[in-house]
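USER: Study each token:
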Amino acid sequence: MASAGTAVTALLRRLPGRRGAIGGRRVRLHHRRIFVLPSRAGMVYALLLLGIWLGAVNYNNNLAFLLCFLLIGLGISTKIHTFRNLLGVELEMDDAPAVFAGDQTSFPLRLINPGERERIGLEVIHAAGDRHTVDIPPRGTTEIRITVPTRTRGSLDAGEILIRSRFPTGLVTAWSRVNPDAATLVYPRPEPVAPSPPATTGGRRSGVFLREGDDDFQGLRRYQPGDSLRKMAWRIVARGQEPQVKQFASVTTGSVWLRWGDTAGLATEQRLARLCRWVLEAEAAGQQFGLGLPGRRIQPGRGPAHRNRCLAELARFSP
């Protein structure tokens, strides 16, 4: 049945003069935006009716004619009920919470039934592959979450949604395409392991921040070419495990500036990933920090709102 839905969608895209998907924050499915075609079962049903009609003509059998006309009436009635199962349904989608590149985000989608008839077996299929089957009670609302994968940073639109119905017999498929006016922000993926930012302080002397130094042992990280052999964890190497390097840190006070220039030598996306890691570490340490990008400076601050503002700047950054 899923392949049949794919075939229906592909056929719709080939129809000459077709209208685009309905856009907007809240959309209503009206009769000019709902399309109807026979399903695979409907095509078999039509061939069966043709066989019955040919037999009735050949043998001049009135009972066969009666059966054929009854089944034709059933098919027409099915088309009407399937069409009405979608007619008037409203869809409303909100923005999704921001995530890091590579994670999945979910858009809340509400399906609203303003009529007195229950809407049964509606299929909601996102362009990325997420699928749901829902019923909507009379004068009621059903909420689902559309899961969308993310790959790159920046603004991400919700994408196109196909809503369709095969109720009540499955002989025909009625569908409509919707492009909700909803989006989310995708932050850069933070660098898994990053050196501490240079110890640049200034402004009010408040808070603490760990920077790379030689005072306190902070843990281990994976060995990278160019690391000093003096900091190598030789006991781990002797056990045949993956080489690790000891990390030491010093404590500094005051505000910290996380600057674009401190990531020189890396590609653009790698620089953003490192700055993203520094922002998260500074926030976790409760440190007051500022962000300096080419043509954009965010003054030092702290807290979730300040962190999200900095991450949003990194997400929207254009070289």
Q: What stands out?
A: The first helix runs from residue 2 to 14. The longest strand covers residues 208-222. Residues 12-18, 201-211 have pLDDT under 50 and may be disordered. The CA atoms of residues 74 and 169 lie 10 Å apart.
